[in-house]
Amino acid sequence: MSVKKILIVEDDKMLGTIFEMFIEELGYELLGVCNTGDEAIEICAKNPPDLILMDINIEGDKNGIETSRIINDKFGLPVVYISGADSAEGVSKCVLENTYGYVVKPVYKRTLEAVIEFAYTKHKFDANKN
Fold it and tell me: What domains can you pick out in the chain, each with its CATH number?
């Protein structure tokens, strides 16, 4: 089985570094850490990840939800949101066709691993149904 490729979209440098460390410790391949939607879209076009960890509030003219919509339309890649917001209203705004999880900060390594594995497997299952 090949190593899963993960892209992190997070504009907080400290959190991005922590997520990067978690991804590497868990044995995934890190495609990069970026802080804008445009960077994420560019990376997906050049080297599509198996999964994207997407903060909702990111730098640039697109937030994480808008960026996820574009990524879904162009590439159909699965997204797991990472956010400090834990309200039902905040979560419901994120539910798109390519949404495969929502994790509230702070994020713990084992929780992240479980969410990544679930999201990746569910995305593969959904792709095989069509």
Answer: 5-129 (3.40.50.2300)
